[in-house]
Amino acid sequence: MRKKIIAGNWKMNNNKAETAALIQSLTPFNFSAEVRVMVAPAFTHLVQAEALTQGSRIEVLAQNMNAAESGAYTGEISATMLSSIGIQKVILGHSERRAFYNETDESLKAKVATAITHDMEIVFCFGEELDQRKAGSHFEVVKTQLETALFDLTPSQWSKVILAYEPVWAIGTGETATPEQAQEMHAYIRDLIASNYDQALEDSVSILYGGSVKPANAQSIFSQPDVDGGLIGGASLNADDFKAIIQSA
Ligand code: PEP
Fold first, then answer.
1. Is the CB of 212 under 6 A from ligand 1?
2. 153 alpha carbon – ligand 1 mean position (Å)
3. What angle do the packed helices 16-26 and 239-247 form, to 10 degrees?
4. Is 118 a catalytic residue?
5. Residues in Cβ contact with 80 at an 8 Å cutoff, skipping those fewer than 6 apart
6. What is the pLDDT averaged over residues 149-161?
7. Residues 90-107, buried b or exposed e (16+ Cβ, 10 A)?
8. Which of 22, 76, 118, 190 could form a disulfide with 66 if both were Cys (CB 3.0 to 4.6 A apart)?
């Protein structure tokens, strides 16, 4: 039985004090044992977040990392650096990284491999652009993204992967995929996993939906049979909204 997962991606928002305040308003919250809650603050606040969430069930993840082990990559953060401060989870492939920092399915494949080597759990983001959805190529786009970056993992390595389907046209736009559109894509992804692996893996992989999830639409999306929760951007910056979304899971 897959647990629901609600992950907040705080992006490049909040200073140190604001991040602490947001975490401190979440840690006393008593959410269901069937739900995992994660938050992804900026790199500069990860140490603080790790300390403030000790003793709570809130899990902390990074928003990105470099594929290389170490070296001359100015401004970058490695898996070893994250591990050394107790961070064993990372978001990879967010559409903003793909769009603004030229991340590709191939470069993400390398990041995934590094994360797996370091025994890190990965929230792997992917999804089609608006023109691809309009052209009807969204299934093909998602297939290529997953095949390139993930489908040479072994079944046991998949235990470290959480998928996050995020149609780019729905991120930060207020435009949400309908529950039916989300379910249709998630079911397609499970079929893809079954045809590349087997039924057991299809059933075990968590697939989150991301894209303008708010308290008002969360329940209708999360109640779809193949949707295992959400990756939440804007609404995760407001403690009351994020808690309401967690309660909808
Ligand atoms: C995201 O950035 O992953 C996201 C889903 O953002 P928003 O919820 O703001 O659309």
1. yes
2. 27
3. 30
4. no
5. 69, 70, 118
6. 98
7. bbbbbbbbbeeeebebeb
8. 76
Q: Is the pLDDT of residue 174 over 90?
A: no
Is 186 noted as a catalytic residue in this protein? no
Tell me which of 43-52, 85-94, 171-180, 197-206 is least confident: 171-180
Q: How far is the C-alpha of 42 from the C-alpha of 144, rounded, in Å?
A: 29
Cβ partners under 8 Å of residue 238, min gap 6: none
- The residue nearest atom 6 of ligand 1, judged by CA position, is 233
d(CA 115, CA 87): 11
pLDDT, tens only, 9-28: 999 999 999 999 999 999 99
Q: What average pLDDT is seen over the chain? A: 97
Local structure of 44: helix, strand or coil? helix
- The two most distant CA atoms of the chain are separated, in Å, by 48
Domains of the chain: 4-248 (3.20.20.70)
What is the pTM for the complete model shown?
0.97
